[in-house]
Amino acid sequence: MERVKFFGNLLILDRLYIPQFMARQIRVTIPVPASSGGSTTLTATSLTPLLLSVSAGDGGVAGDSAVLTPPPGAANASFTVHALAPAGVGRIRVSSDTFDSAEIDLTLIRPSLGLFVTNGPTPLIIPATGGPVGLNVVLGGDLDSSFYTSTDIYLSPKRPSVTPVVQTSNPAAGSLSTPSRIDGGARASTLTFTPASPGITTLTVQQPPGFVLAPRVTSLLVRVDPVAGYLFNTPADIDVGQYLSKEAVFAATFPQSPSGGTVPVTISSSDPARLLTSLELSGTASAATQINARAGAPTVFRVTALAGQGTAQLTFSAPGFVPRTTEVRFAPSGLAFPASTSAPAGLRLNESLTLNASWFRLDRSTRALVEATEFGIGVPLRQPSLLISNPNVIAVDGSHALTGAGVQFRLKAIGRGTSDVTIVQPSGFTEPASGTTLRITVP
Description:
Blueprint: E1 4-5, E2 7-8, E3 17-19, E4 22-29, E5 42-46, E6 52-55, E7 65-68, E8 76-83, E9 88-96, E10 99-100, E11 102-117, E12 124-127, E13 133-143, E14 146-148, E15 153-155, E16 165-168, E17 174-176, E18 188-195, E19 199-206, E20 219-225, E21 231-233, E22 238-241, E23 244-253, E24 262-269, E25 275-278, E26 288-294, E27 299-305, E28 311-317, E29 324-331, E30 333-336, E31 352-362, E32 369-372, E33 374-375, E34 385-388, E35 394-396, E36 401-402, E37 406-413, E38 417-424, E39 437-442
Parallel strand pairs: 1-10, 3-11, 12-20, 22-29
Antiparallel strand pairs: 2-4, 4-8, 4-15, 5-7, 5-9, 6-8, 9-11, 11-13, 13-14, 13-18, 16-19, 17-18, 19-20, 21-23, 23-27, 23-33, 24-26, 24-28, 25-27, 28-29, 30-31, 31-32, 31-37, 34-38, 35-37, 36-37, 38-39
């Protein structure tokens, strides 16, 4: 019988993540389905049993391996991976007597809980006379200081249930219902916030033992306004790096409008020499942008920072609305390799390689990488360069490719040995505390 290689449908992804205590289902697609006269038996084996276990289904016994028996004629089979550790890279192999084996790597990350509005933008602005607002506590993980989750990640049935605890800083503003329990096989808890009286409160989800804090998703700002009417639901304070652009969202709430359900909203900058606004990722940015906002619907816009320190204000205005302001805080920015980037293994002589660097907002004090964002709209792209410590080993192979997301460096191995490759920051950018140097070895 011809040996046909089979593939898991997730093998095409660059990287697959799974937080500790959680499970993820992986489907294996068989190009030649089992014949109607019999079935194909597959075995999923964890090659890293201290990091990952596998089971044939959510209710199966998790162990170092699991046997999958698709029914006759089936074109695919599924197995479940369970994360046992908060870090590392695990590997699963799927094998069969009739097909070539396939392997998939999963990067383990620390678990975390995030708090979100079920439907609508944040921060949450509601009238005191409004009804309950749905909230969700979602399972995820801390990935490079950002919250990571996916619809196919859920609590491993092999783990105890998680009962989230959500607290409010101002009980007079409103009350919280008791969050539902997250049992094995579930990925989220539901609860509601019911407004009571005007005021501002911060809702915070507590992290259970073994879970870590993921920035910006564990707390939710809620503003309860005195009456329903013409209101702006504007974003909280925005942090953006110099010469970079960032997406933000607002919503306009009004009982009716003279223009068929939309209202012209103007977003203006208090300091156009330092802060610009725009609608699209491409095009031009200006001191003021007008958007036709639909009632209650999230409306996306972008801000571009021309300064690396200090603050400026955005003002939202429209006929019949009380103007609202949002503060934009400027930070330094730099070009760096993402934390997930590693030097290529097994690079051969005369082989070419590509390294991708991203534009990052930096911490104002430590210069640590905080957030990868797009280059500023309307800001001329800045040309970086590379410092190669051993030009007898590594050489630049053509010109660098600049995009709004970052820079693609093309290199070539021209000799044997070791060389450091260091990003030289473009004019106006700040040297990050890490992520600018990779060591490459050509054996």
